């Protein structure tokens, strides 16, 4: 079967799956699932270029998604009158000033070796300056934060257009990626995985606990939409217009990435990926390029995260889970084929419909098991069997990852021969 | 005086306990790094798995501990370690070795270990639920309260039996590891393979044997660390994820591939954690009468609020990567 | 039938062949030297003999047994040893431990053999407990060879043993090789210092572009004016 035929077949299968869902559960449900799948597609595009173009293992997708979501809340949520009509913005501004001064002083301290201070001493001074700045900022932030929480709930948003919020989400995620990448790229790729894993957890912890900033576990809702909301236009039309918007975004992103990949920049990236040593010898700044990809991919993740959370209309930091927001996306791109933009989109749409359907399927299955167990063995299932059923999905995701890696490492949309790297050389014996 | 006792309890004891657990986990991770050259993300789940196996064994033989005067879970520990070691070998054979033999890059192995960790997580939660359990079934945890001879010390040093056990076990494990690496043929072969895997092959060293031994040690120590931690605190499926970052930070701080570095790194990260969340205001309390009117002592003065405890190993990790990626003992970087 | 018989080897790293039909034969107890310009395929030949890369066509027979494409670990047990050009010691292990690793496949006590290695390379005795990575280049080379000799091999393969060494150590190495050979070990050696190497060689094999160019005894090749002109710098 030619590659084209296979692709058409796969997409036809996908369409059939979605059609089945629409048929079984209705248009409103089907539309919701489709929109979320497209948001994931955007995130998946970000991840596939990080892995496929630059070979980077980002184990903290969740963090970038969360950052994007948070920024859109900050930008687009209506302003909190109680907050702005008090002295708290001013006090908060003061803390921000202290923070900026602290960062500046610490940076200056780190440059003291330029005027002749011995390196060890400079490090000590830098660390102490940093620690002191940290203590000052956290001490001054504490009362302000508590006041905000008590009097206004949280700082609210800026009331700006939603799409601007999404763009800001992308930019913020990109900024985080820039910092992490500067430190970790150029070291072995496992380190990036660990670092991104860590930073995702920290971002989540920050968003969960900084009630003054995000309302924490009390959640922020309802989030404004860039298209008419379900209250204004009914579920079907509102979701359909959201779908149209997301589809347009995904198509644009995909098209731009395809253009870039075929352009000289893309050729250079492929050269680096396929033969890093040679590329570096030719003077290409490998780490710089990798950083670019890492940031670009994260921007897409941030934007996708913003879109996803906006759609759900609730910002709940505790709702970000590594399984749902990192590893699920990994399955999407591994299945689709690393580095294949079309594969990422397909993978996202396919895996998402399977994921969503797996919840009722798992419950059904375990219900049957519970009945059969009771009838045949007199077995009394534990009370939390239903929540355990959902855990079975965790196992399946893990299994899928290992199976695909083992048996279909190129994914369903393997790169075409012209752009594929040369056959692996080297001889593994024993 | 009371404050110093408080410090000892909250920092010295806690640091030793946390450090011991991290050290044992980090040794396993660093050995896998050294011999198999990839970051084993499934290590946290190996620890949880080991603890669960210990739990099942404890439930099956609840009175074994009473016979010896130790917690049953501790008596079951050797069996749990052995079973976990065997499982680790099996996992390697099924999931990692095929990729290695295909010449896969280390990053692909890391991804596979992510798959493995999800599978273990899913299975554990499926069969055991997501709740918290205590490893003390039909038993009580022995708590030792040591009185100090000083008059002013009304507080006692509090240390529980599991805490004593974990510290002693870690010391024994460290000594045992040292003996193994420097006195046995396989141990030296492990060091050789870590130094230069190609030359090891050339010299006729049985690389499969070394790989198996690596998993035995890594799996065994993981089970021990997980069980002992769960004895001290409780058995939670969440443990896997939360412990992964500190362990990796410890391994990297100590120098990737250096077992002694991993031990040092474990204690470093452990003490850093407890020192960061420690409420230093307590230590300053005796000075309050002198500072009255000059400075108002806050009720809580800590570097990091307890909710953000996870940031400590992360910051350490970032610091090491920025300033000294090879770690304390100069391990491998690339 | 020679002790080591290599016939028409075609081998390389991956897609293209570097060796395009190399042959050589060595009798037991001889020293064979493979020489030639850079890129001729000298090291490649040695690695192919030791199973370190895939042989696409041709055969390698040792003492009557076919060893083509066998794993290095098996060849060690069959009585072969290989000293690579670079990274040929375990840097963090002591000299003594390096030697012990060489004897890994032996079941018996390796202490007598270690003693013999120390007699052979006296400077190593006092450095026995020093990490091999801290030694000088010449001493490291001794450790590397010692490690390979621990199995009392019948065939010893050396890949450019004098690479990067000072002239004083170079002569020492050639003396050691001669002594090793005199104790009954067949040696196949790749060398850049063709002149000095051929002087101690029983057989010489000059390769160029992956093929044999000149074959003969060491003395013959040294005396051949054409060989001298093209490969030995006149």
Structural commentary:
The complex is a heterotrimer of chains A (430), B (334) and C (234). Chain A has helices at residues 3-25, 27-53, 61-76, 81-84, 88-110, 119-151, 162-184, 189-209, 211-214, 230-262, 264-274, 276-281, 286-312, 322-336, 341-377, 385-407. Chain A is an all-alpha fold and 430 residues long. Chain A has two domains: 3-80 and 154-407, Orthogonal Bundle (ABC transporter involved in vitamin B12 uptake, BtuC); 81-153. In chain A, α3 runs antiparallel to α7. Chain B is mainly α. Chain B has helices at residues 2-36, 43-60, 64-68, 72-75, 77-101, 106-128, 161-183, 185-195, 197-202, 207-232, 239-254, 259-277, 281-284, 288-291, 311-323, and strands spanning 143-146, 157-160. Chain C is globular. The model of chain C has no long low-confidence stretch (mean pLDDT 90). In chain C, a hairpin with a 2-residue loop joins β4 (55-62) and β5. Chain C has helices at residues 42-49, 72-77, 95-102, 111-120, 123-126, 137-149, 167-182, 194-200, 218-223, 225-231, and strands at 4-11, 19-26, 31-35, 55-62, 65-66, 80-83, 155-159, 186-190, 203-208, 211-217. Chains A and B meet through α6, α8, α14 and α16 of A and α5, α6, α11 and α15 of B.
């Amino acid at each position: 079967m030619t590659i084209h035929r296979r692709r058409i077949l796969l997409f036809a299968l996908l369409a059939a799956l979605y059609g089945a869902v629409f048929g079984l559960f209705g248009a409103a449900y089907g539309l919701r699932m489709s929109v979320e799948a497209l948001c994931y597609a955007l995130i998946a595009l970000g991840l596939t270029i990080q892995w496929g173009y630059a070979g980077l293992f980002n184990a903290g997708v969740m963090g970038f998604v969360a950052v994007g979501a948070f920024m859109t809340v900050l930008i687009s949520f209506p302003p909190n009158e109680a907050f702005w009509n008090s002295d708290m913005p001013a006090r908060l501004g003061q803390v921000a000033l202290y923070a900026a001064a602290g960062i500046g002083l610490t940076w200056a301290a780190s440059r003291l070796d330029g005027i002749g201070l011995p390196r060890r001493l400079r490090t000590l001074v830098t660390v102490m300056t940093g620690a002191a700045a940290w203590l000052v900022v956290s001490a001054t932030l504490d009362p302000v934060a508590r006041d905000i929480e008590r009097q206004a709930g949280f700082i609210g948003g800026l009331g700006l257009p939603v799409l601007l919020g999404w763009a800001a989400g992308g930019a913020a995620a990109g900024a985080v990626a820039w910092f992490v990448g500067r430190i970790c790229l150029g070291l072995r790729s496992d380190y990036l995985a660990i670092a991104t894993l860590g930073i995702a957890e920290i971002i989540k912890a920050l968003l969960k606990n900084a009630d003054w900033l995000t309302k924490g576990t009390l959640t922020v809702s309802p989030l404004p939409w860039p298209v008419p909301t379900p209250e204004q236009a009914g579920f079907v039309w509102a979701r359909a217009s959201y779908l149209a918007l997301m589809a347009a975004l995904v198509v644009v992103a995909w098209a731009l990435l395809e253009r870039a990949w075929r352009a000289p920049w893309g050729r250079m990236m492929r050269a680096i990926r396929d033969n890093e040593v040679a590329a570096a010898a030719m003077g290409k700044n490998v780490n710089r390029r990798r950083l670019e990809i890492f940031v670009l991919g994260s921007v897409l993740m941030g934007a996708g995260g913003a879109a996803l959370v906006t759609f759900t209309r609730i910002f709940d930091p505790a709702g970000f889970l590594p399984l749902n927001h990192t590893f699920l996306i990994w399955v999407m791109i591994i299945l689709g084929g690393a580095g294949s933009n079309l594969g990422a989109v397909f993978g996202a749409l396919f895996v998402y419909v399977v994921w969503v359907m797996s919840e009722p399927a798992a419950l059904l299955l375990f219900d049957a098991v519970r009945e059969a167990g009771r009838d045949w063995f007199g077995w009394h299932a534990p009370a939390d069997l239903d929540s355990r059923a959902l855990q079975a999905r965790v196992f399946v995701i893990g299994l899928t990852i290992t199976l695909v890696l083992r048996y279909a490492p190129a994914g369903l949309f393997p790169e075409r021969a012209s752009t594929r790297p040369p056959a692996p050389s080297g001889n593994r014996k024993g | 005086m009371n404050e110093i006792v408080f410090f000892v309890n909250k920092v010295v004891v806690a640091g030793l306990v946390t450090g011991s657990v991290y050290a044992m986990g980090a040794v396993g991770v660093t050995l896998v790094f050294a011999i198999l050259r990839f970051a084993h993300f499934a290590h946290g789940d190996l620890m949880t798995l080991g603890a669960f196996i210990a739990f099942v064994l404890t439930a099956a033989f609840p009175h074994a501990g009473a016979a010896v005067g130790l917690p049953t879970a501790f008596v079951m520990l050797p069996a749990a370690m052995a079973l976990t070691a065997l499982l680790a070998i099996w996992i390697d054979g099924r999931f990692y070795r095929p990729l290695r033999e295909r010449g896969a890059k280390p990053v692909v192995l890391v991804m596979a270990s992510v798959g493995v960790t999800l599978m273990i997580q899913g299975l554990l939660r499926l069969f055991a639920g997501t709740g918290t359990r205590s490893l003390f079934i039909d038993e009580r945890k022995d708590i030792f309260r040591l009185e100090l001879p000083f008059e002013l010390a009304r507080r006692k040093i509090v240390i529980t039996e599991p805490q004593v056990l974990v510290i002693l076990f870690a010391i024994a494990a460290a000594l045992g590891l040292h003996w193994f690496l420097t006195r046995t043929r396989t141990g030296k072969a492990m060091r050789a393979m870590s130094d230069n895997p190609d030359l090891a092959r050339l010299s006729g060293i049985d690389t499969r044997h070394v790989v198996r031994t690596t998993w035995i040690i890594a799996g065994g120590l993981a089970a021990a660390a997980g069980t002992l931690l769960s004895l001290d605190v409780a058995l939670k499926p969440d443990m896997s994820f939360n412990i992964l970052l500190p362990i990796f930070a410890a391994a990297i701080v100590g120098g990737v591939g250096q077992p002694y570095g991993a031990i040092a790194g474990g204690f470093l990260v452990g003490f850093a954690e407890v020192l960061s969340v420690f409420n230093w205001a307590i230590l300053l309390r005796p000075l309050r009468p002198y500072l009255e009117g000059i400075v108002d002592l806050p009720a809580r003065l800590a570097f990091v609020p307890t909710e953000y405890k996870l940031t400590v190993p992360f910051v350490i990790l970032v610091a090491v990567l920025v300033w000294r990626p090879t770690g304390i003992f100069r391990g491998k970087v690339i | 039938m020679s002790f080591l018989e290599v016939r028409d080897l075609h081998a390389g790293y991956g897609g293209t062949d570097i060796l395009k039909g190399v042959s050589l034969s060595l009798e037991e107890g001889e020293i064979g030297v493979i020489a030639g310009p850079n890129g001729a395929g000298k090291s490649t030949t040695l690695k192919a003999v030791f199973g370190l890369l895939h042989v696409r066509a041709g055969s390698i027979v040792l003492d009557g047994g076919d060893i083509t494409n066998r794993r290095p670990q098996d060849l060690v047990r069959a009585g072969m040893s290989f000293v690579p050009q670079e990274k040929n010691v375990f840097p963090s292990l002591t000299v003594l431990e390096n030697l012990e690793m060489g004897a890994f496949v032996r079941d018996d006590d390796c202490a007598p053999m270690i003693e013999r290695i120390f007699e052979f390379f006296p400077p190593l005795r006092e450095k026995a407990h020093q990490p091999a990575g801290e030694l000088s280049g010449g001493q490291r080379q001794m450790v590397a060879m010692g490690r390979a000799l621990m199995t009392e091999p019948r065939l010893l393969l050396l890949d450019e043993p004098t690479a990067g060494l000072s002239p004083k150590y170079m002569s020492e190495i050639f003396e050691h090789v001669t002594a090793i050979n005199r104790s009954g070990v067949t040696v196949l050696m790749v060398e850049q210092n063709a002149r000095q190497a051929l002087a101690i060689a029983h057989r010489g094999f000059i390769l160029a572009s992956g093929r044999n160019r000149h074959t003969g005894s060491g003395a013959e090749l040294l005396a051949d004016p054409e060989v001298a002109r093209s490969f030995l710098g006149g």
